[in-house]
Amino acid sequence: MGDEANDKLLNTGDGPGSEKSAVEDVKYYTLEEIRVHNMSTDTWLIIHDKVYDITGFLEEHPGGEEVLLEQAGADATESFEDVGHSTDAREMLEQYYVGEVHLDDRKKEKSKDAMLRIQRKAAIPGLPG
Ligand code: HEM
């Protein structure tokens, strides 16, 4: 338990095994599971289908904690990109990484589902969309 926390702190960049923890056991979270982490004492964000626990970063954020809390428990990709964050900011993200959005819950998958529904509806008239 303590080891894991240490690994996370130490895995800030170079050195052997720095990518190990991220690659070894990727955790997948559903949007439902992510949504509950929406308070200042427990804050998760989704950026590009990756999940970040940014609780400890709130006070450090140069853009303030307010904007982060507005997106807490949800997808902040658009706002993150709108700001045009620096490479430094993108690298900072890595240390807060906790997992990935469940494949079923990704936007791409969703639009594929929507497309299937439209096709099905077209093929079978009267089917509720
Ligand atoms: C965990 C994810 C985030 C990290 C690591 C992060 C990091 C940073 C960093 C390092 C800066 C300084 C400028 C730069 O290097 O680009 C910054 C600025 C800023 N961020 Fe974020 N940011 C994150 C998420 C967000 C989100 C989701 C929003 C908007 C909803 C946001 C809004 C801003 C704004 C408005 C500034 C500009 C502050 C200023 O220059 O006055 N950030 N952020």
TrEMBL record:
Residues 1-23 are annotated as: Disordered. One of its GO terms (molecular function) is heme binding. GO terms for cellular component: membrane. Residues 26-102 form the Cytochrome b5 heme-binding domain. Keywords: Electron transport, Heme, Iron, Membrane, Metal-binding, Transmembrane, Transport. Signal peptide: none annotated. Pfam families: Cyt-b5. It is found in: Membrane. This is Cytochrome b5 heme-binding domain-containing protein. It comes from Mugilogobius chulae.
